[in-house]
Design a protein that fits this description.
Helices cover 33% and strands 0% of the residues. By secondary structure, it is mainly α. It has one domain. It is flat.
Length: 52
């Protein structure tokens, strides 16, 4: 497990940090927003017509 962690996850995290990728979207959006909340989009009424 130790070798798997350091051979797989650590390099992946370093590459993501190098390219500025934030998988969890932890940025607040600047000085105008003080929240991590992302507003949801309104789905059309026929969305539940055929869910699968």
């Amino acid at each position: 497990m130790f070798v798997l962690y350091y051979a797989l996850f650590v390099p992946t995290g370093l590459v993501m940090k190098l390219f500025g990728r934030d998988a969890l979207a932890r940025t607040t959006g600047g000085e105008t927003t003080h929240s991590y909340r992302v507003a949801s989009t309104v789905r059309p009424n026929d969305h539940f017509e055929r869910p699968y």
